[in-house]
Specification:
Blueprint lengths: L2 E5 L2 E3 L2 E3 L2 E5 H5 L4 H12 L7 H6 L5 E3 L9 E2 L2 E2 L1 H25 L8 H13 L1
Antiparallel strand pairs: 1-4, 1-5, 2-3, 6-7
């Protein structure tokens, strides 16, 4: 699983709020707007309604990222998250999870990484379909 801790700090009605949450990135990547999904999860985990003035103020602040797990470990640096880089690797990983059993069953290839040409051909066929 791919997770990251998100947090931020904002002021609402003169009070400082510092919500944080562990966000399941696999869930966010399935959303059309993963960053908005992260804000919604952060709000929900901290009792902030997504149709509130508090939420409207919260989403104006940048997220801080820490404690990544899984593939995300390579995409969090100095509190910032390379969403586009992660998404590209995440999508490739998802495709390979589908293709590896096919390669194993029909081609006898136990590890597609050991056959880069076949891996590339299967990836291209999958993406073209």
């Amino acid at each position: 699983m791919n997770h990251v801790e998100v947090s931020l700090e904002f002021y609402f009605k003169g009070e400082c709020h510092k919500p944080s949450a562990i966000v399941p990135l696999d869930q966010c990547m399935r959303d059309e707007d993963p960053m908005s999904q992260m804000y919604r999860i952060l709000a929900a985990e901290n009792g902030i309604g997504s149709y509130s003035h508090e939420f409207d103020i919260m989403i104006m602040e940048p997220l801080h990222f820490s404690n990544p797990t899984g593939l995300a470990s390579n995409f969090v640096h100095n509190g910032e998250f390379d969403l586009e880089g992660f998404r590209a690797v995440w999508l490739e990983d998802r495709i390979l999870q589908i293709l590896q059993p096919i390669a194993s069953t029909y081609l006898g290839i136990k590890d597609l990484d050991s056959q880069p040409d076949i891996k590339a051909a299967l990836m291209a066929a999958y993406q073209a379909g």
